[in-house]
């Protein structure tokens, strides 16, 4: 039973990690906490659902959704966030992201209604038996997909020119500009990647939660818990944090009768508070030193 809960927790946590990864990418690119990231994933899931409804194969629908959300994210960054980020107006940025979250949710409900919709699993139905543990093909596909995204991003940031420029523009923006690196272009690139990753997270989780405008609200809470646990500066930490949150959520919901299925989000809140108190930079984040 414990092994089964661990396996389920890893699959669920992989989705949290994917959305947390998008949150971290946006934070690294623009020092912005985008509270609308869950709605980005939700919109990506609806775009994929609409493409499938029009007859597109699921994988083509996913690619269309990723492309649309990458463009949409860049547009949101250019129009709504960049002017405020340039002026170092942190509180207005938070308010704008919250407003965008509410507006997107209302527009999604207006366009696609609040009726629950069924999204076909990307990896098909059926069970994969791993010793004593039974895992659905969709869950196994989710874990492998998120691991592949993490590997691609690691290669991007460590071994490619664009990745190195993105890292430099975040750590030393003025020096990067003097070296000919456009920090604005790097910021847009980070948002575009985050938008595409959000679309993947939404499309992967939609078959399990069923598609409706309130689908991503609890997932966003767990994703923020994962990002804070792993460290807002660390993509690898976001994935580790997501898996950890997924496992803790599953074990707490199963083994602690007082928690059950209704109070599992309290576990995420407790985790956020505990990490912020004990290690604000997260498990893989670096502590910022300020000269007096």
From TrEMBL:
Protein name as it appears in the record: Branched-chain amino acid transport system permease protein
CDD domains on file: TM_PBP1_LivH_like
Chief location: membrane
Subcellular location(s) of the protein: Cell membrane
GO molecular-function term, one example from the UniProt record: transmembrane transporter activity
Bilayer topology term: Multi-pass membrane protein
Record key words, sorted: Amino-acid transport, Cell membrane, Membrane, Transmembrane, Transmembrane helix, Transport
Family of the protein in this entry: Belongs to the binding-protein-dependent transport system permease family. LivHM subfamily.
Superkingdom in the source lineage: Bacteria
An individual GO BP term: amino acid transport
Cellular component GO terms, alphabetical: plasma membrane
Keyword Ribosomal protein: no
TM stretches of this protein: 6-27, 39-56, 62-81, 93-112, 140-159, 191-209, 266-284
